[in-house]
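Forum > Structural Biology > Help requests

Title: Can anyone predict the 3D structure of DUF2839 domain-containing protein?

Hi all, first post here. I have the sequence for DUF2839 domain-containing protein but no way to get a structure on my laptop. I'd be grateful if someone could post the structure tokens.
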Amino acid sequence: MRRIISPIDSTKTALGEKFGQENRILPWVPITKTQSEQFVQWTTKGAWIGIVLTVIGWITIRFIGPAFGWWQVV
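Reply #1:
Sure, ran it for you. Structure tokens for DUF2839 domain-containing protein below:
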């Protein structure tokens, strides 16, 4: 009776010690693909927060401050 090798067993044998480890973006950069995706998510979220704060600041300086008499826009 012949034994059927599952794809996981053959992959594990082929990869050896690298089995279960994530792939790196580039071999010489110690950052995995998951870490790079998380970095993109955080920086995108940070950029949108910065945009929103800039718009709020502009609205405050341009409209709210002069409306309450805090300063005059020249």
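Helices lie at 7-15, 33-67. The radius of gyration is 27 Å.
Shout if anything looks off.
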